[in-house]
């Protein structure tokens, strides 16, 4: 065989041998505490990651009780992504009990948290509102934090993570602008709605929609009979146009408030969890678009 061909074949074989580990490297295993974070990680990580979400679509992370199988899932994980702000403290206890020694990313790091006092509801309390993703500009911070953590866990994929994060951030910025522009067309006096629990404080601050909630920032907060009666009187007085059911809450409370206040049922909002794949909110972007569409229909004058 021609010596030149032999040299070329040898060089090609060497290049393939060097590339093989990268081509066949196992994807990075990442644990996300709940479905919205799982979607963020999937968008940033792409094919380089395998994401396991502990609290899946339609489930409530506030009340989640980890199972023994969850501890086993942490065994091969290189990164755990949690929300923080008191939303999913159980995952840190789970990691400790499972002997996990990797990184735990608090995805909300760098976001100024709201408290119930900030939201002008119960000034005697100062519980932190953990639902920071309800402001789409905050979602961009989540994405930046996730991209950095993935890059540290998998330096070879850093460029991919940065590119994915940049593309996703551009989509988030466009969505944020759409929400602002669309809601601005609703007269200020009509931009007030009722939800089951206080999950929309960040949305309220970002997009100038007043939310009145029957319960506190956690779904574990049970509204009192007196509190519900006070809310109904307030709705009658202020003529709030609609009461919205939340996907993770018992709809009977919203139905009762609607019936007794005269405000119509405005549809279902997604606050703390995505829907199943065949639902209206299988991704974060779809969830926020669905909520915007639902709010616009509920805030429109009755025919």
From TrEMBL:
Listed CDD domains: PsaA
Signal sequence segment: 1-25
Cross-referenced Pfam families = ZnuA
Per UniProt, subcellular location reads as: Cell envelope
Q: Tell whether Ion transport is among the UniProt keywords.
A: no
Domain of life, per UniProt, equals Bacteria
Instruction: Provide this UniProt record's keywords sorted from A to Z.
Output: Metal-binding, Signal, Transport
Q: Does the keyword Transport apply?
A: yes
Q: Which PANTHER family match?
A: HIGH-AFFINITY ZINC UPTAKE SYSTEM PROTEIN ZNUA-RELATED (PTHR42953), METAL-BINDING PROTEIN HI_0362-RELATED (PTHR42953:SF1)
Family statement: Belongs to the bacterial solute-binding protein 9 family.
Q: What is this protein called?
A: Zinc ABC transporter solute-binding protein
């Amino acid at each position: 065989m021609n010596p030149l061909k032999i040299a070329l074949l040898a060089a090609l074989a060497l290049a393939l041998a060097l590339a093989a580990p990268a081509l066949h490297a196992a994807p990075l295993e990442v644990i996300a505490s709940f479905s919205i974070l799982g979607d963020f990680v999937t968008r940033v990580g792409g094919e380089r990651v395998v994401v396991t979400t502990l609290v899946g679509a339609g489930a409530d992370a506030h009340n989640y009780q980890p199972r023994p199988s969850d501890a086993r899932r942490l065994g091969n994980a290189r990164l755990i992504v949690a929300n923080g702000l008191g939303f999913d403290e159980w995952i840190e206890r789970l990691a400790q009990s499972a002997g996990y020694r990797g990184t735990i990313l608090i995805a909300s790091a760098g976001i100024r948290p709201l408290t119930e006092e900030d939201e002008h509801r119960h000034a005697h309390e100062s519980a932190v509102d953990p639902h920071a993703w309800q402001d789409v500009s905050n979602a961009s911070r989540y994405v930046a934090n996730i991209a950095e953590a993935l890059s540290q866990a998998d330096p070879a994929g850093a460029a991919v993570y940065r590119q994915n994060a940049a593309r996703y951030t551009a989509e988030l910025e466009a969505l944020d602008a759409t929400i602002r522009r669309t809601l601005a067309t609703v007269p200020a006096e009509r931009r007030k709605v009722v939800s089951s629990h206080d999950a929309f404080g960040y949305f309220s601050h970002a997009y100038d929609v007043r939310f009145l909630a029957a319960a506190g920032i956690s779904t574990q907060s049970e509204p009192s009979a007196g509190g519900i009666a006070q809310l109904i009187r307030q709705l009658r007085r202020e003529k709030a146009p609609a009461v919205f059911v939340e996907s993770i809450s018992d709809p009977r409370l919203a139905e009762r408030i609607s019936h007794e206040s005269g405000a119509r049922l405005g549809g279902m909002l997604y606050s703390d969890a995505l829907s199943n794949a065949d639902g209206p909110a299988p991704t974060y972007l779809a969830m926020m678009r669905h909520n915007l569409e639902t709010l616009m229909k509920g805030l429109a004058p009755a025919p």
